[in-house]
Amino acid sequence: MKLANLLALLISSILYATVKTEHSEKPQVQALMADWSPNGINSTEMTFYLAQIRSFIQGFQQGLYNNNSFKLSSACLQSSFVNPAIQVEDAFSAGNTFKILAVMSPMIQIAYNLQKSCNLNELIWMLLSVCEKGSCNSSTVVSNATKNLFSFTGSFNNIAESFTDSKKTSFTNLALISQQYNDIGVEFGKMLKLLTSFNRDKAVARKFY
Ligand SMILES: *[C@@H]1O[C@H](CO)[C@@H](O)[C@H](O)[C@H]1NC(C)=O
Ligand SMILES: *[C@@H]1O[C@H](CO)[C@@H](O)[C@H](O)[C@H]1NC(C)=O
Ligand SMILES: *[C@@H]1O[C@H](CO)[C@@H](O)[C@H](O)[C@H]1NC(C)=O
Ligand SMILES: *[C@@H]1O[C@H](CO)[C@@H](O)[C@H](O)[C@H]1NC(C)=O
What we know:
Elements: H1 3-22, H2 28-33, H3 43-65, H4 82-94, H5 97-102, H6 104-116, H7 120-132, H8 138-147, H9 149-166, H10 174-196, H11 200-205
Helix pairs in contact: 1-6, 1-7, 3-4, 3-10, 4-6, 9-10
The protein binds 2-acetamido-2-deoxy-beta-D-glucopyranose (4 copies).
């Protein structure tokens, strides 16, 4: 497996664990050890979670590229991934190694889709290229964070607000949840842009990917 595949898988698992735990009352540590969804996830719920992930990824790139018209392909985590994602969630929530091996194929389908249709392949290579050039080492990040403290405070407030609102969103209101997670993604993307002085045109010009 290529590095980009692995990263895509890792990021998707982290995003997934994040969105998954916020709708449950259990603390995260406990949720990681026990089966956090013993009755599985139905397709209405999974459609909702995929909309969260997709919108976050889109918003993140809008913020990072400073381009609100950036849109992901409609193939990114489209509805045909609901069932594969349910199978993968089922295997992971049970923490059963055999089940996890059995869902390798839907997992690879999802990882491939994330890379290709959700643009994670390009995103990850651009981010790696920024770090490669030394503009994301800890001293520059800390000094940039200090310089931009005011703007970060605003971002964190917006994130907290959208996140609180999103907890009240009904599972069937996909338009609203997509807007809320898009907004959250934009704020994270903006912060990363400030921290690393990310510039998409420069990253693309380096042809790192
Ligand atoms: C799926 O889960 C949602 C939220 O928990 C629930 O409202 C809905 O009735 C369930 N749908 C089916 C078909 O079980
Ligand atoms: C913003 O994104 C859109 C859609 O991807 C693209 O067509 C446009 O050129 C981008 N604008 C800038 C300034 O990069
Ligand atoms: C961090 O990056 C800056 C800017 O590229 C560079 O001047 C500095 O030497 C780097 N510091 C370390 C510890 O690599
Ligand atoms: C962040 O740090 C880099 C490297 O020191 C610098 O070139 C850049 O201008 C800083 N960005 C901001 C927004 O301060």
